[in-house]
TrEMBL record, chain A:
GO cellular component: ATP-binding cassette (ABC) transporter complex, substrate-binding subunit-containing
Recorded GO MF terms: ABC-type transporter activity; ATP binding; ATP hydrolysis activity
Alphabetic keyword roster: ATP-binding, Nucleotide-binding, Transport
Keyword Transport carried by entry: yes
Protein name (database record): Carbohydrate ABC transporter ATP-binding protein (CUT1 family)
Organism superkingdom: Bacteria
Sections of the chain in a coiled coil: none
Compartments, record wording: Cell inner membrane
The UniProt record lists the keyword tRNA-binding: no
SMART domains in UniProt: AAA (SM00382)
Main location as per UniProt: membrane
GO biological process terms on file: carbohydrate transport
Annotated family: Belongs to the ABC transporter superfamily.
Automatic annotation (TrEMBL), chain B:
Gene3D superfamilies, sorted: MetI-like
Cell location: Cell membrane
This protein's record includes keyword ATP-binding: no
Keywords: Membrane, Transmembrane, Transmembrane helix, Transport
Family label: Belongs to the binding-protein-dependent transport system permease family.
Name by which UniProt lists this protein: Carbohydrate ABC transporter membrane protein 2 (CUT1 family)
InterPro entries: MetI-like (IPR000515), MetI-like_sf (IPR035906)
Membrane topology of the entry: Multi-pass membrane protein
Database matches in Pfam families: BPD_transp_1 (PF00528)
Amino acid sequence: MQKSVSIKDLSLSFGAVNVLENLNLDIGDGEFLVLLGSSGCGKSTLLNCIAGLLEPTGGQIFIKNKNVTWEEPKDRGIGMVFQSYALYPQMTVEKNLSFGLQVAKMPRPEIDKRIARAAEILQIGPLLKRKPSELSGGQRQRVAIGRALVRDVDVFLFDEPLSNLDAKLRSELRVEIKRLHQSLRNTMIYVTHDQIEALTLADRIAIMKSGVIQQLADPNTIYNAPRNMFVAGFIGSPSMNFLRGEIAGRDGHPVFVTNGVEFALDGYGASEALQPGRKVVLGVRPEHVAVNAEGAETHQATVDIEEPMGADNLLWLKHAGHTLSVRVGGARRFAPGTAVKLSFDMGLASLFDAGTEERI
Amino acid sequence: MSDSVALKSAPAAASKAEPWGAKPRRALSGRNIMLYGTLIVAALYYLLPLYVMIVTSLKGMPEIRLGNIFSPPLEITFEPWAKAWASACTGLNCDGLSRGFWNSVRITVPSTLISILVASVNGYALANWKFRGADIFFTILIVGAFIPYQVMIYPIVIVLREMGIYGTLTGLVIVHTIFGMPILTLLFRNYFSALPEELFKAARIDGAGFWQIYLRIMLPMSLPIFVVAMILQITGIWNDFLFGVVFTRPEVYPMTVQLNNIVNSVQGVKEYNVNMAATLLTGAVPLIVYFVSGRLFVRGIAAGAVKG
């Protein structure tokens, strides 16, 4: 894949605090990459470095194979969309869109052409003469995207663009950003703390914690084969069930033992041999626990709480000293106190080393 | 549940659409009498001297000698105002305050404009372009605001003398500009810091430079703080007496210094009516500035304090 943005050994520190340390990241041409993490993990800092708004302490940034580490933001071929929209309040929408082009001394007919195109793509034609204060949040963010669009850039940078919007608008605009990416095929780097946005939009997700990329993979891999317990716990709602225990051998097969209960590990694709006695953590997503399934290895559990959520029904089960969250179909109702049988889909479970918290 | 409560409290005869609940408080309650009484007394306390000044300035000297300082003038005369403006004597000059007025205008206008222009750029640079040593620079500037003026007067006299502008309006304008710098820079820096940082970032991505961002993005959003700075500077410089008397010569004395010379003249009869008129004339400019832009002033102070 042709590289669009390439980050080599990037470091950034504010005083004694290292926000980013020797970070490496390659982003393909036309790729939609999401930087995901909780606040303070360095994802916005990384984006600001790519944009040229922060000077890195060390390392290099390449965009389209050109070293832009010390270039001004305007010379990097990037457009940026901010969480707070950052529209110039005293200018009309049209002026907001044309400001950067005027600064670049572009001829007027070309400016008009580009604004017309952006207005058509984003359906903001009727708003061109309005001031930002006369727009709704969703309209403002459309204009902010338009401002990046008219600059005809190689790389779009989004800094939590939907976080200031209400839930309904957020999902609408999310779809629009995806559509925009499908039609434009530009490289997009998108910072968010919202895992739904990450899973729905991304070609690849980079999950960050304390300035380090924990896992860089497509959404499916991130969800089903998290590389460590942080990634496993960060993605998914409700989060993955973690059961602490150890490996034991039974008739030559490894089994997982927790609080005196055994689970066969048949079907789990371990990347290394499972030595008996090893302390491990078994991670199972709520939808990978089957309730009252036929023919599987089953264990007794009791329904503690039931949370009907419409399409799904979320059960909190008591089992061998653990509380497990389990997702079942919305039609399957269980009264609290009901005894049920549960079984795990080991093919989709995750096993982590209890010490390193890395996937086995 | 809430329905039954409503039925109990509302009068049985009243229809449901009518408002009910506690009666509105009476306008003439004990609390209000205390409140407005205090306010009126405080207002009178401050307005009474002004009243005395105005009525005295409209009386002739014979009427003043009767001693009834609170009584309104029996015979209104604008003679004292005319004399204060055009022919009251200070030292050898007998052309009244008019000379001082124009001197003050020539001092205040350039000092205000230059100090605000420089301080706004300072504040903008300190808030948005975090250059190396910005914090130290800012600290030094702020410390400057706390050094008593009196300490610096003699050194400045020497500096101005060496520059050959001691005793001139230019020298005084420079002094006012420099002394306004710490507080104005602080004001502008805090205002620009409170503007969303992302606007500045967006402008940089759009390719605007230092001056383009200042002129086209920041300035149009900063009217309130410019009004605040203008009011502070106009009133401060207009009311200044110390720098005026130290750094200028009698021909270019500002209005305040001339007022003092008229009022404190020890020769001849004390013309209270002329003194009052002269004082009111001198105070008129800051008063008018406050009245015209007071609302913007309050808004600017609030805008600087609350993050937008």
